[in-house]
Amino acid sequence: MNEIPTMMRGAADRASELIRNVREDQLALPTPCQDYDVKELINHMEWVASLFESVALGGEFVPPKDYTGDFPERVGRMLAVWERPEAWEGVSEAMGGLPKPVLANMALTDLVAHGWDLARATGQDYDVDVDTAAALLAFGAQMAPMGRERGAFGDEVSVPDDAPPLDRFLGVIGRDPAWKR
């Protein structure tokens, strides 16, 4: 049974909650994702939700857009598409021929990684269930070379082998689990 849609929903719900709790005075704060401040990170999350909705439908690569503040609505549309069996079939030409199940895992990776980034930047708590963290750790380790090559992942951060799966996942994709603002 495919658990990724359930994991995506949990990560999307948590990300939506985090975004709703961001105050106006926090939008310019730095985040662990060095390319983005809080507002730019939320903008990126909105774009990614639209992108993964489009590619799940067999659509084109959606270019980035300006911040609109509608992440919960965008991610809700994305989730609805990934809950359809046909979203998992075939490959996405818009994403270089990657199989759609890989894209779903990429969407989950993005939701969790950037949810964690946002929580750290704004002083909010963040956690995911152990099964989601373990699935992301396995996927991240498998995809790390390509992720680094394409600029999606940073250099691996050393994390103890006995650290929680979420921390080890973050290290694999180039985040320091101890990051503080």
Automatic annotation (TrEMBL):
Q: What Gene Ontology molecular function terms does this protein carry?
A: metal ion binding
Cite the SUPFAM superfamilies for this sequence. DinB/YfiT-like putative metalloenzymes
Q: Locate the Mycothiol-dependent maleylpyruvate isomerase metal-binding domain: which residues?
A: 10-62
Pfam families, from UniProt?
A: MDMPI_N
Protein name from the UniProt record = TIGR03086 family protein
Organism of this sequence: Nonomuraea cypriaca
